[in-house]
Amino acid sequence: MFEITNLLNQVQILKIDCSIYLFGSYLYSETWADLDALIIYKDYEDVSIIKNVFSKSFLNTPLDLIFMTKEEEIFFNFINRTNARKIFPKNTY
Length: 93
Prior knowledge:
- By secondary structure, the chain is α+β, with helices and mostly antiparallel strands.
- It has a single domain, classed as Beta Polymerase, domain 2, CATH 3.30.460.10.
- It is about 45% helix and about 25% strand.
- Strands 3-2-1-4 form a four-stranded mixed beta sheet.
- The chain is globular, with a radius of gyration of 12 Å.
- This is Nucleotidyltransferase domain-containing protein.
């Protein structure tokens, strides 16, 4: 859990305009194999920054990062289909 807190602090400090959702075994099992995250971004330039922040925050954790725009998420209905849980920011989309 410390890694997630560190990740969210870094995203906030860097003022990256995105929403982060978790899905998969991390939410439902104590023996998860990887961290599955959906990142909804507004500016494509932020994608590499977000990847870097995740990599530094989760050094020894396999990551499955899915990047989508808001429009792509709506089209694929990804949040509902995966039962993803929003972790950042807490109060919007």
